[in-house]
From TrEMBL:
This is Gas vesicle synthesis protein GvpL/GvpF. Transmembrane segments: none annotated. Belongs to the gas vesicle GvpF/GvpL family. Keywords: Gas vesicle. The keyword Cytoplasm does not apply. It comes from Nocardia amikacinitolerans. One of its GO terms (biological process) is gas vesicle organization. It comes from the Bacteria. The lineage of its organism: Bacteria, Bacillati, Actinomycetota, Actinomycetes, Mycobacteriales. The keyword Chaperone does not apply. InterPro entries: GvpL/GvpF. GO terms for cellular component: gas vesicle.
Length: 263
């Protein structure tokens, strides 16, 4: 490391879990990844040139989507490799310190928060569940539910009842979708150690035209991952007009509270 280098942070973990040899793991600048240790905590870091990763050049580079995607992939590859060895608090993209001493100071200052975060995520992994609504199918399902149990004295009456239910369902489809998303999220939270609702993704950003109604992340015990997936599948069958998409496993970015404080 030179005066022209900064220290890019990838994750914080237990020094005992990590071990000493990181093999040939490389980071966002192609640099060999190393550790900065303070007590029983280890920060996984890399020395990166400030000409590229300093404040001003980094701000410009983050606006380059090609550069951003490649850097994010390299960052996540290191985080995933570290998480594969044991509990690890992942640092979000672009956390850079000027030198190792400042990293050690951060570990000392936030020791309690990091230890608490590591205790929460140990033996657990993050899973994502997105719910997408089909307006036509959801409208039909709500209308059928409203008609269930109603008596049909004649074909004319039945037709009027059905049309009224369909019109009502069209007017309330947004609310109905939100209610279903709430119920799905509540059920998944009960199945997980922790759960959070994230902002809904703008279709323009992910290139999809689907109507997203839930973007949830859930911290799941590793030995209950199959059970969690089965619950997601079952919920997908319980709510006509709602399609569930399970993704993961991921490093627990959504539950790294200590990381947010450290930034």
């Amino acid at each position: 490391m030179t005066d022209a280098d900064g220290v890019w942070l990838y994750a914080v973990t237990s020094a005992a879990d990590l071990g000493e040899d990181l093999g040939e793991l490389t980071g966002v600048a192609g640099e060999p990844v190393r550790t900065v240790v303070s007590g029983d905590l280890a920060a996984v870091v890399g020395s990166v040139p400030l000409a590229v990763f300093g404040d001003e050049p980094l701000r410009r580079n983050l606006e380059d989507l090609t550069w951003l995607e490649a850097t994010a992939r390299a960052h996540d590859a290191v985080v995933s490799a570290v998480a594969g060895r044991g509990a690890a608090v992942p640092l979000r993209l672009a956390v850079v310190f000027l030198d190792d001493d400042r990293v050690r100071g951060m570990l000392d200052e936030r020791r309690a928060a990091f230890e608490s975060a590591l205790a929460l995520i140990r033996g657990r992994t993050e899973w994502g569940v997105k719910a997408y609504g089909d307006r036509a199918a959801l409208t039909a399902a709500v209308a059928e539910a409203e008609l269930a149990g109603s008596e049909r004295a004649g074909s004319g009456t039945a037709y009027l009842l059905r049309r009224r239910a369909q019109l009502s369902a069209r007017e309330t489809v947004e609310r109905d979708a939100a209610e279903r998303a709430d119920r799905i999220h509540e059920r998944l939270v009960r199945q997980a150690a922790a759960g959070r609702r994230q902002p809904l993704t703008d279709p323009v950003l992910d290139g999809r035209r689907d109507w997203m109604v839930l973007n949830g992340t859930y911290l799941v015990d590793d030995d209950r991952a199959d059970e969690f997936a089965a619950v997601v599948e079952d919920l997908g069958k319980q709510f006509p007009g709602i399609r569930l998409e399970l993704t993961g496993p991921w490093p627990p970015y959504s539950f790294a509270g200590a990381e947010r404080e450290a930034r």
